[in-house]
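User: Please fill in residues for this 236-position structure.
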């Protein structure tokens, strides 16, 4: 599938999901992955640990849930830019932060995670949650490193591939997972999943140091899990 068609399909799916996303992602995470959505969100926010006065970029911000958790970590004294390819998600994010009375902390922009419209070394912190499996993760990590200042931090939560998918019976286990996910909004959408071990390698290959990971194990021996990975852009 040509890249632009792929992007357009992703936008179409997430546009249709935006009105129900806040509740459906909670249900999806708990029912299919056995993980509380709030645990993943807080895991990213606390690992990123934004400080008052820092500039923060939240990639694929969706309805702003992670962005709001980041603001809470910094007592609403940091500056947060949220980007997403889906305008209706951004509209929901703006509505949510305004309703919380902290709208002045945020700027939201429609943009691609793989081509960030920001100058080099613009941010102290970059985050993303449960989105990069919809992207070319190495390309996104390259952009994350580019826009981070030396010593800046990145924290990412994402859905992971099951390690059984990489074994001799991988096609069978992958099929079981696809059947398990039938009827959900996140049933593939041309996704590229990585195991927890692969995520560690992606981070290190992407030039990040002090790489760490927390894993929420899959609910089943063949299904997807959740990982939170973090790292630091080395000083120049």
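Assistant: Residues filled in for all 236 positions:
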């Amino acid at each position: 599938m040509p890249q632009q068609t792929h992007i357009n399909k992703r936008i179409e799916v997430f546009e249709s999901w935006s009105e129900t996303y806040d509740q459906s992602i909670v249900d999806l995470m708990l029912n299919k992955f056995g993980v509380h959505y709030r645990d993943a969100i807080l895991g990213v926010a606390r690992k990123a640990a934004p400080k008052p006065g820092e500039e923060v970029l939240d990639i694929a911000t969706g309805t702003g849930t992670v962005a709001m958790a980041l603001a809470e970590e910094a007592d609403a004294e940091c500056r947060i830019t949220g980007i997403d390819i889906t305008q209706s998600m951004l509209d929901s994010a703006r509505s949510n932060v305004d309703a919380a009375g902290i709208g002045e902390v945020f700027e939201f922009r429609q943009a691609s995670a793989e081509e960030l419209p920001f100058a080099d070394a613009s941010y102290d912190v970059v985050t993303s949650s449960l989105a990069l499996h919809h992207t070319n993760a190495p390309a996104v990590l390259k952009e994350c490193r580019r826009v981070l200042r030396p010593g800046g931090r990145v924290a990412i939560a994402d859905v992971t591939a099951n390690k059984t998918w990489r074994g001799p019976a991988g096609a069978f286990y992958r099929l079981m997972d696809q059947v398990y996910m039938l009827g959900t909004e996140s049933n593939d959408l041309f996704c590229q999943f990585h195991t927890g071990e692969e995520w560690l390698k992606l981070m290190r290959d992407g030039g990040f140091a002090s790489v760490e990971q927390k894993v929420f194990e899959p609910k089943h021996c063949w299904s997807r899990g959740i990982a939170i990975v973090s790292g630091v852009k080395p000083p120049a």
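For context: The first strand starts at residue 55 and ends at 59.
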